[in-house]
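Work package 3, deliverable 3.1, input record:
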Amino acid sequence: MSKASETRKRNAENKARMERVYAENEQIAARGICPDCGRKLRRNLSLTGWWQCSQLGAVGFRADASQPSCNFQMFTRA
Ligand SMILES: [Zn+2]
């Protein structure tokens, strides 16, 4: 296989993988529930498509300071 066609194949595989990731993330966003801890998700408006668990972050940033933090975050296309 030529280098150019290897690159095209790899790019197509990467694109297909990202499409699957986005499709899965968009289902999670539609549910609005963190898959790791079951709390609500919220958008981080500083970047388009950025979603975070409402329990992400330090005390004062996460939704419930009495509960442990959760690191779940993901991106959707919009
Ligand atoms: Zn969570």
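Helices lie at 3-31.
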